[in-house]
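It would be a great kindness if you could assist me with a short task in structural biology. Thank you for your consideration; the sequence and its tokens are set out here.
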Amino acid sequence: MPPARADRLLLLALLALNLLLKLLWLGVNELAHDEPFTVHWSQRPLTELWAMFRTENNPPLYFLLIKAWSAGVPFEAAWLRIPSALFSALAVWPLFLLARRYGERGAAILAAALFTCSNYHYGFAHEVRAYSLFTLLTITGMWLLVRAADRPDDGIRSMLPLSMLNVVLVYTHFFGWLVVGLQGLLVLILPELRSLRRGFLLGAAVTMGAFLPYALIFLERITQSVGKGTWLSPPMPEELYNMLWRWSNAPVLTVAFLALIVAAGWKDRLRSSGLRFAALWCFVPLLGMFAVSFTVPMFLDRYLVYAAPGFALLVALSAESLFQRRVAQRSVMAGLGLGMASTFTPWKDTGAHPSRVVQVEQEWCSDGCSVEVLPQWYWLTHLAAKDIRNLKRDLRSHLGQADPATAPVLGARHPSPPLDTSLAAVVIDAGAHLSDPGRPWYQHLRAIYAKVDSVEADRKVRVYRFHH
């Protein structure tokens, strides 16, 4: 059933608000973390890009999207972030429709408001990474799944839109397969979706068939992560609460949201299909990934971006379920929405300032020096901070892919000194290990140079100058 006119107008207003907010402050933060990696490889020829994917933990779709987008816009951070901002703004559309299907108009507005004013989601809207697209596809997939229950007799035809969307999903992020698995779990468990079982299985087979060309790379990456481990550590118990805190903007809201969910679940006994749907969507990934992370660590905020909209939906439906009297219900919903809005800080920077590292390097190298960066992935961030156009260059020598004879001097575990030791050696260390004597390369260079200066130029990034 199409939304009522009032719902369409509300949805249009929410989309406009999201679009406005997500397009603001796009250039506040410098390119940092994994953004320079995405930008650089999106500029490389397709032959190099395809070769890189054999060792990359993300599928190709978003890289190709940025490659096409960057060809027609100014090569600046703000412009490169626009696709992510647009995807995040559009995500409020299927979320509103989901909440409206399971609840009243107030619940739909609250769910949309919780998403709109989320610092967590806003951060992904301002990253040149795939997470906002991943979020949009996840929510849309959940909406298509629920909508298909209106015509279960259509079999595969009712699942075809979802299976096609899931193809895009798994080519956007490998964790898209976790979303497909979550959809299957919902179909198996929820009575209102059980009529979709046959159609869902056929649709999932279509998705798997479309992914076959990439299956070998996917299996290689999974095998390496399971066999050799990830760069993450097993989580501490408090990380469960911290994750919910990220989704809620502030600790007081986290406690309020959890109390609301528990109270509504106790009162309703989870008989409501909406509460069951949202609770499974939110807590199965949250608790499941937490448990798995003691074997294969993967409990990270961005890896759970597909579960966070379920939390917003659960809070909104819990508020509606718990308070039956209209005045109390509206008052509580307004309070929760205002709480998120009052803790929403879209103008706040992320705290990463690689340009400060460049400034220190330039000051210390005014009389000449050799400059090296550890670990090598930080080269991209460092060069982008100097001039974003550097990311269009062939940087294989900086990334350790060139002939060893021309590789960076300090790129090895035991670096060699510069050929001219009369020049100072500057080392930029983004490894977050701040105990100088414990680093092998530090000991190596300290034995060559009489003096060393160091400063933490950016968060967890120290710059060292070795000189005579």
Summary: The chain is about 60% helix and 5% strand.
